[in-house]
């Protein structure tokens, strides 16, 4: 009876090892991709992208709300706040394009 119990345990251990370790003929991907994650569905990715865009927009407008009054209180003759306004608007536009999926590769 003890020999049979040990045999079952050994078989269970071997099957557990096989399930944990991939077979030798499977080559792991050298670089995992975020889109290949089985837990991430397209809706979750879209929500995450919109959330990052919202954070970017809040930082942009929050900074501009501070810079514009500081500009007009310190040097009202020279509108220097336009430089960060325009310079930051370009990356913000790229971020919007990314959220809309314009940079995604077509799935084949």
Automatic annotation (TrEMBL):
Biased composition (Basic residues): 1-11
Region of interest: Disordered: 1-47
Keyword Transmembrane: yes
Extent of Basic and acidic residues compositional bias: 34-45
Membrane spanning stretches: 53-74, 80-103
2TM domain residues: 48-101
Keywords for this protein: Membrane, Transmembrane, Transmembrane helix
UniProt-recorded name of the protein: H-proteinspecies of closest matc
């Amino acid at each position: 009876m003890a020999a049979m119990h040990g045999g079952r345990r050994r078989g269970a251990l071997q099957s557990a090892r096989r399930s944990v370790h991939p077979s030798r003929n499977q080559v792991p991907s050298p670089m995992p991709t975020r889109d290949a994650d089985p837990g991430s569905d397209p809706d979750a990715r879209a929500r995450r992208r919109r959330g990052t865009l919202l954070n970017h927009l809040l930082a942009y407008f929050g900074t501009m709300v501070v810079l514009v009054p500081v500009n007009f209180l310190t040097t009202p003759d020279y509108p220097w706040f336009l430089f960060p306004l325009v310079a930051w608007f370009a990356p913000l536009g790229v971020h919007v394009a990314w959220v809309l999926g314009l940079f995604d590769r077509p799935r084949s």
